[in-house]
Amino acid sequence: MAALLLGLLLFALQSPPVPSRPMVIGAPPLPSTSLPTDNGTSSHPNGTLQQFPHIIIIGVRKGGTRALIEMLSLHSAVAAAQNEVHFFDWESHFQKGLPWYLSQMPYAFPNQLTVEKTPAYFTSSKVPKRIHQMNPDIKLQSTTHPHTPLPAPSPH
């Protein structure tokens, strides 16, 4: 299991960079969550900022999503949201808009990957379109859990 998690992390780190802001053609960019100072750096004392996730973990209940995000967050290049956000599947959260969603993300250094985990995104029919509208290049990491035992290997 540890090898799988390490492999997933390395895959995410080696993939081409994904914009952490929504890609909406013709729309003005969202305002930054940190105020720039005179020299153009972040006003937050340690240089961190909130950014949209680069990776969203989805999956079935009891499928290992919590274990996956806990293992990923051990790496210094990952900043993980602390709670399940339920932005794309709960109307009450989705109606608050992208600025609210961004406010739920952890503060991260610019070179860190931001990761969110909400397993329920796996079962909602409206989620794929909403995520794609926010960022068509985002990576989705899915975990599954077989409900039936795997078949025994066939003899050679």
TrEMBL record:
UniProt protein name: Sulfotransferase
UniProt cross-references to InterPro entries, sorted A to Z: NST/OST, P-loop_NTPase, Sulfotransferase_dom
Alphabetical keyword list: Glycoprotein, Signal, Transferase
The keyword Metal-binding is annotated on this UniProt entry: no
Domain of life: Eukaryota
Domain Sulfotransferase, residue spans: 53-145
Family to which the UniProt record says this protein belongs: Belongs to the sulfotransferase 1 family.
Signal peptide: 1-20
Claim: Acyltransferase is one of the keywords in the record: no
